[in-house]
Amino acid sequence: MAVMFMLVAIFLFSLWTPIITFCIQQINLWEFIFWTELIGFTVSFCLLRFLTRRDKVKYKRLRDLNAREMMIFSASGFLRVLAMGCLFISFLHLSVAGAISVYDFWPILALFISPALVTKDWGKVGAKEIFLSLFAFAGVLMLLYPETRSEFFTAEPDPWKRWGILLLPFAAGFSNALSGVIKDGLIRKMQLQDRPFLSIFVVDINYGFFCVIFAALSVFAGREFLEMPTGTYTLEGVAALLFFSLVIVVMGRLSFTLGLARATIQNISVLWFILPILTLFWLWLFGMSPITGEIILGASMITVANLLITSKPDDRLSYPATIITLLLVSIYCYFFEGLSVDDYYQAASVPLFFYSILIAFLMDRLIRRDRFEEDLVVEMIRHVENDGPRQIKQKKTLIDKLTAIVKTSDVEKIDAYYQDLRNGGHKCFRDVTEKLDALVLSRMQGANFGEVLVLFLVGMLGILMLSVYRPPYFAGDCFAIVLAAAIAFMFFMVVDLMRLRSQFFLELDDKGKFRMSRDIMRATLIDTVVSGVLVLVVILATLGAMWLRRGTVGF
After folding, report:
1. What is the reported pTM?
2. How far apart are the C-alpha atoms of 306 and 121, rounded to whole Å?
3. Fewer CB within 10 Å of terminal CB in the chain, N or C?
4. 242: nearest Cα among 253, 254, 250
């Protein structure tokens, strides 16, 4: 049910941008924000009173808030109204598809804002997150760059207004990220025991009240100080406003909240990143915004970065490296024409042939050595279990030291564990000393730096040759993009195998029971499904961008 609620919310909010684009062409955008917030707050408040009419649940109403909570709620509401205003103004001057795609950068901004303001924990922001954030920011630049050639940008004489409106979608995303982080902090602080749905709903209503106040102030300020004209309320515009307020805002938020509250699957929120894809589809279908190759590639970069940060089915590098290579090579092929060498396919086959041989030999050696070490460890664990000390704590200590040998590539640590087990007088290791010796020697004979360097150089040569010298037609672009991604996948598969040699997935708990390691159990079905969908979407997006560039298959 949680997944169904989340998918309903995604479908409803995917209509958010097309309906807003239609409404603000008629109704003044600040009046539109005010009416939608007022209707949404009123209906949500009535729904909360209905849900709690028989159940006496103690929750913080507006009158129960202290001064600090009142200030935090008002700041969150102000930032939300500011975000919507900036975004809607950008719709009137920029490409709607490009502006909404830039706005979708906000979850990455929230990644850095949250530890700075709320959690004070930077542990979730590592090198991987920083790299993916920079990758997504490059997508933002790709989306904004075409706007510098638009009619508005070239015709506007005031540089402050010109660049200010260009950066409005980014400013809207920053304001929304800041508002969302503040609101999430309030949800955690005002959590109702065993009532996750009401916890989120109550915060949303208190937050919505301040959105209404600041939306009303923005309408007043616009009329009094900026002399904004009153919007035209046609039957179609009012119907669209009511549909937006009652169906998209109220029902969408309700469905999203129910999905989060009832979720038993970890990371169900990753489904939310289907939303940008659906939004671009509706804009294209309704003819509200042109969809260019730059928009497809830039939006894909932001969506991919968001998903790779949020969804983590495992810690392997081959999957994200393949996706990123697909996009990077697609960007090069989109902006730069191939040199079209006559014997392109024959020339490309030479480095690919040697690359495949090197990969095959190294992967075979790593897999064989990994299996050999696992067999040795399992056999010695069995020996410790049968002939080792009777006390569970002592037995666990020996097994932990044994498995630690295969969980690290640090030579000094391996030597320390080896000396302790070999020379520590443990009777259970007397009959398996040759196996312990073989295990330690095997750990010293993995892939060396020279082999990895040669693989990297040959792989880069293959990717450059495929990209630079490709023939100038659609099939040639696809050939270069797919094979470049395959080269990256094979290289990082070797890297993953090397890293896999520092993992062992059996462990002994404090009660003396063996079990699978918690690291191998953390992948969820929804992560795997979303990851598979992401690959398909990225491939279709890159092919779509190349098709827009070429128009025909060509051979």
Report:
1. 0.82
2. 20
3. C
4. 250
